[in-house]
Amino acid sequence: MPIQKSTEAWIRDLFTNIDNKNTEGFASFLTDDVKFRFGNMPITQSKPSVTDQVSHFFNSIKALRHSIEELKLLGDTILC
Length: 80
Prior knowledge:
By secondary structure, the chain is α+β, with helices and mostly antiparallel strands. The protein is 42% helix and 12% strand. The protein contains 3 helices and 4 strands. Strands 1-2 form a two-stranded antiparallel ribbon. Strands 3-4 form a two-stranded antiparallel ribbon. The longest helix is centred in the first third of the chain and has 15 residues, at 5-19.
């Protein structure tokens, strides 16, 4: 199923915030009751906790970059 332009723009904006190491911009995509797992770390719950974890990660690296080659919609799941 094709991805709607608004959904594609949302995903690209999300990854732009991540690649710019914009913690607050990234957090703006989260709900207050978020459950977040980074890699094989334990699940972090709550927006402030996730924001703190992501901030520490961003500060620990020099840079990162994502290249979205393709987007696919499978039911209610988007694959990048």
